[in-house]
Amino acid sequence: MTETPNPAQSVAGSLLGTKWKPRLIVTLAREGRLGFGDCKRELEGISSKVLSDNLDDLREHGVVSRDVVQERPRRVEYELTGAGRELYTILESMAEWDATHVTGAGAPTVLLADDDTRLLELYALWLAADYDVVTATDGREAFRRLEESVDVAVLDRSMPGKSGDEIASSIARVGQETPIAILTSMQVTPADVSLPADRLLRKPITEGELRTAIEELDRLPDEAPIAREVRARRHRLEFVETHLGSAVRSTAPYRRARAALDRIEADRAAAVEAREPWRRLLEEGADPETEMSSSDEDAF
């Protein structure tokens, strides 16, 4: 008779019970294929040796794969396997358990602001089972409620007192980082690429669309600020193009926003490249193949 495995002694439990492996799995799940240096940059505080050891362990258990994408200078990239993605699903379930059961965590708080009370009641009804919902029927009330503990805000663009984009601009100026979606029934224009929001939503909106947006927004605080900014800028460009068609690419607001995003991404890529160990060695005239140990070669 086959002995039933003891869940408390599972390999999965030993992998997820360490300091760095769960963070590494989450990073690869959210960012996709990454080089060694990219992983090190995303996992602030980890040493090269610890990262190399953790990657080796995950590869040994079939959680992560490693591909050589360049021989000289040597560079490899890592990504989750199917087994790794299953472990990520377990980590997501653990986070959901925390949100539901851990004292002091509870369900995320969502602020819904719209001067159409019928829509406000409908949105609140859709979310009530999974979120702590607070509501506001005008911009000034919404702005006051944002001073409380709000995890995600969904703001109508046209409200008395303060518009949704005015509220978003105001909290950005004071350094508040609440993820924000702006709901709009107004005609989409090329200038909307500059709206100060993480997400833009077009009315009428379905329950599925609202839930998906809130789930995505609730994960944003876990991202690096530059990654969040890039994601928001990309989304706004895609939103405008979806509603206005490819012709919007020739408009001045779109071109400026596209150029600004390209600069940010280029600066980000340059910063990552500058931190790569192989680049420093090349600039010093050394041969990475002879200067690096085999574990350090994984950095490439």
From TrEMBL:
Organism: Natronococcus amylolyticus DSM 10524
Region feature (Disordered): 277-300
Sites bearing 4-aspartylphosphate, chain numbering: D156
MF GO annotations: DNA binding
Pfam family, one: HxlR
Gene3D superfamilies: 3.40.50.2300, Winged helix-like DNA-binding domain superfamily/Winged helix DNA-binding domain
Domain Response regulatory: 109-218
Protein name as it appears in the record: HxlR family transcriptional regulator
Domain HTH hxlR-type residues, every copy: 6-106
InterPro entries according to UniProt: CheY-like_superfamily (IPR011006), HTH_HxlR (IPR002577), Sig_transdc_resp-reg_receiver (IPR001789), WH-like_DNA-bd_sf (IPR036388), WH_DNA-bd_sf (IPR036390)
SUPFAM superfamilies in the record: CheY-like, Winged helix' DNA-binding domain
Keyword Transcription regulation: yes
SMART domains per UniProt: REC (SM00448)
Entry keyword set: DNA-binding, Phosphoprotein, Transcription, Transcription regulation
Start-end of Acidic residues biased regions: 284-300
GO biological process: phosphorelay signal transduction system
